[in-house]
């Protein structure tokens, strides 16, 4: 992927959306954004950062519109799913806050699995979010993580490493 050409295509797309959608938003597109050290859960090559009075519209319903714009940009660029992490849309630091939330939830789930000895199932989440949880728990020698389910119902389950389910699939505990 030519990053500059991709950034220009994203800019054309967003100009049309913001202008024709009557949105009061500003955005900046950063190629090769600087990232904090030890950030292996996401290393975007292009970051699109939104701000402005209509930011709440992007973040409403769990950031649904923000994710939809990102997905349209990925489809427009024809990026294979293995390269989706190269493009990142954010607004008011929502993505960083969500990553921290997922890492905290991963630690809470790990402690519950250790305490109860039973699997713990997260609610369905995107492949990017599942990856963050997998990475958060990768160094926990006494636990295993697996993605289970299909499509929009795909979720992550944390198991004790030596877990033996009784006769088929275990009934993992879910986050409440």
- Structural category is alpha/beta
> End-to-end span in angstroms?
41 Å
In spatial order, strands of the major sheet run 5-6-4-7
Radius of gyration: 18 Å
SS element count, helices: 4
- What is the H-and-E element order? HEEHEHEHEEE
Which runs of at least 5 residues are low in confidence (pLDDT < 50)?
Answer: 166-170
The coarse silhouette is: elongated
Mean pLDDT: 86
Largest sheet, strands/sense/barrel: 4 strands, mixed
Q: Which descriptors would you attach to this protein?
A:
alpha/beta, single chain, 176 residues, three-stranded mixed sheet
Could you describe the 3D structure shown?
This protein is α/β, with parallel strands linked by helices and 176 residues long. Helices cover 42% and strands 19% of the residues. Helix 3 (94-116) packs across helix 4.
Give a brief rundown of this model.
The protein is an alpha/beta fold and 176 residues long.
Task: Walk me through the topology.
Elements (H helix, E strand, L loop, with lengths): L2 H18 L5 E6 L14 E6 L3 H22 L10 E5 L2 H23 L3 E2 L5 H11 L5 E6 L6 E6 L12 E2 L2
Helix pairs in contact: 3-4
